[in-house]
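Record type: monomer structure entry
Structure origin: computed from sequence
Chain ID: A
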Amino acid sequence: MRSPDEIKEEFLEIYRKNITREGSDKLLEYLLSPKSDFFSAPASTRYHSAYEGGLAQHSINVYRCLCDYLSRQRVKDVYHLTVSDETAAVIALLHDICKINFYKVDFRNSKNEQGVWEKVPYYTIDDQLPYGHGEKSVYIISGFMRLSREEAIAIRYHMGFSGIEDKNSIGKAFEKWPLAFALSTADMEASYFLEGSDK
C-alpha cells in the first residue's frame, strides 16, 4: 500500500496538469489547508479504501477508470461522448469531495490474536454538513469554481442506482447526460474491483 504522501503527490500532479479553470487554485488551496482532511481521510468506514489517504486514492482510481472508459472507441462513436481532459479530471477527482471532514476515528473493544480485549481504532461517520452526497460535492465545488451542467449532473448522480435517490431521476439523468453514467461506472469499478473491502 502506498503512503498518504505518495497518493497526495499523484493527486496533485493530475489536478495541476488538467484543472486550470478560474477558482481551481482556490479549491486546491482549500484541499491542502488545515480546514480539510481530504488527503488523510478514508473513502469509507470499511467498504473500500478505508485507510488514511483512501479518499485521495479512490479519487485517483476513479479518474483512471473514467479515462479508460472514455477512451473506448464505442463510447466516442456510438454514445457520442467526447470529454475534455479538464472535465474528466474535475468530475473524477472531486466527485467525493463531500467526504471531507466526514469521518472520524473512534475506538471499540476487540479481542486480539491472544484472546485479550484491547481498544482498536475504527472509522465512523460524523457528518458536519448533512447536505446529501453527490449534491453536497456539487455544492462545495461550486463555492470555488463553476461547473458545467453536465459536470454537475455527473457528480450529483455518481452513486447511480446504489444511491438513495428516486430511481426514475437516476435513469433520466443517465439517459440525458451519458457522462453521469460514465462517472458512475468508473466509481463502481474502482470501489468494487480495485478497492473492495478485501483488497
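Annotation 1: The beta strands are 103-111, 117-125.
Annotation 2: The radius of gyration is 17 Å.
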